[in-house]
Design a protein that fits this description.
The longest helix has 21 residues. The termini are far apart. Helix 8 links the parallel strand 2 and strand 3. The strands form three sheets. This protein has a nine-stranded mixed sheet with strand order 3-2-1-4-7-9-8-10-11, sandwiched between helices. The chain contains 13 helices and 18 strands. It has 386 residues and is of the alpha/beta class.
Length: 386
């Protein structure tokens, strides 16, 4: 889709309704039928948009996705609605009433900000992407709060806005970009832009090295449903603060500067910290609350003798500890009649699917095996969710 306009005509709108929810296996038959009465290019565009809407439902919800328009890159790179909503609520709680959303993409964050009652200037330099963002704002009844502008973000005047939000492009012609300075725009420019307003927020990759986080920034790592989605550098909040936020909730763990947890023998319970906790280097805070320690100084598994509820880690009761040995594991699983095997790994080169094929689990029971290191030694810990 290189032109949005044909899909916005009455004919295009009718075609979108006609192809809604078309399964991939049915696309050829549907296209053949519709091309008898409509231009082939328009039918293809409608089917492509339907396909994108189905993909986008996981991020935006089916109701919004069916009203919005998308590009392939827009679906891939847009912020999940729950994460954008959390960020917008933080902005609102800070007293922000206007935001310059730079590199707005298809408008996911602008939509969340507008729904929080915040006025938004949404900027993107790609003509089609800006057109899609504008259309989405109108489609969701938010056109009065979102002003979409096609422009180079480095040339936009953000004076007068309460906050600046920047979401640099982290994909190039060769795939994902890991160097923050290679993003478009680079991290250094984005930081300068954020510091010009009373508040600022920069969306960055979850794997951003802690040492490149500016001293003036608060760093927040966000997971949704257990999956780490992004990190955000906040300005005008708490310089130097580090937090892990878990959605839904939100539940937020604030760093206290604890040293690394001690290593201790494996106890009755093993805790697997949420990915946001691990990325934010706040495993020590969780270990303290659980009265636990690490199974190995380089592995983010916490072990403890007692079961304590925590939203920041998943607990497992450990029944067996074995040195890494496939034959012994296979014999143990056969003895326990384990047919449903979950394999988790941290600090092991063995692939879960490879191990599952070798042990060939059979039986009515289930178990979880952790491939890891304990005090430096390759180890298998067997258990089940507590």
């Amino acid at each position: 889709m290189n032109d949005l306009a044909p899909l916005l005509t009455p004919e295009g709108s009718a075609l979108l309704d006609a192809v809604r929810g078309t399964a991939p296996a049915d696309e050829l038959a549907v296209a053949t039928r519709l091309r008898r009465e409509h231009p082939a290019e328009l039918v293809s565009a409608a089917l492509g948009q339907s396909r994108l809407r189905q993909r986008a439902a996981a991020k935006f919800g089916a109701e919004d996705a069916e009203r919005m328009f998308f590009t392939p890159n827009g679906v891939e790179q847009s912020t999940r609605a729950s994460v954008a909503g959390h960020r917008a609520e933080r902005m609102r709680s800070l007293g922000v009433t206007s935001v310059a959303d730079l590199c707005c993409g298809i408008g996911g964050d602008a939509i969340a900000l507008a729904r929080a009652g915040i006025r938004v200037l949404a900027v993107d330099r790609d003509p089609l992407t800006a057109a899609v963002a504008r259309t989405n704002a109108e489609a969701l009844g938010l056109g009065g709060l979102i002003d979409v502008r096609e422009a180079d973000v480095t040339e936009v005047d953000t004076d007068g806005y309460d906050a600046v939000f920047v979401d640099p492009a982290r994909r190039g012609g060769r795939g994902r970009i890991f160097d923050p300075e290679a993003c478009s725009p680079p991290l250094s420019w984005a930081i300068e832009a954020a510091l010009k307003a009373p508040h600022g927020a920069l969306k960055v990759a979850p794997g951003i090295p802690h040492e490149v986080v500016p001293a003036a920034a608060e760093a927040e790592w966000i997971s949704d449903g257990g999956d780490v989605k992004e990190a955000v550098l906040w300005f005008g909040t708490e310089p130097g603060a580090v937090r892990a936020t878990l959605l839904p909730g939100p539940r937020t763990l604030l760093g206290t500067g604890l040293p690394d947890p001690r290593v201790r023998p494996v106890g009755r319970y093993l805790y697997e910290p949420d990915g946001a906790v691990i990325r934010s280097h706040l495993v020590a805070e969780v270990a303290r609350d659980l009265d636990g320690g690490l199974v190995d100084e380089t592995i983010a598994y916490i072990t403890a003798d007692t079961l304590r509820p925590t939203p920041y880690a998943t607990a497992y009761e450990i029944t067996d500890r074995l040195p890494f040995n496939v034959k012994k594991l296979k014999a143990l699983l056969r003895e326990r009649e384990v047919g449903i095997l979950t394999v988790k790994k941290r600090g092991s080169a063995v692939e879960p699917e490879e191990l599952r094929k070798k042990v060939k689990p059979q039986g009515p029971h289930s178990a979880t095996v952790f491939l890891t290191r304990v005090a430096g030694a390759p180890t298998m810990l067997v258990g089940h969710p507590a």
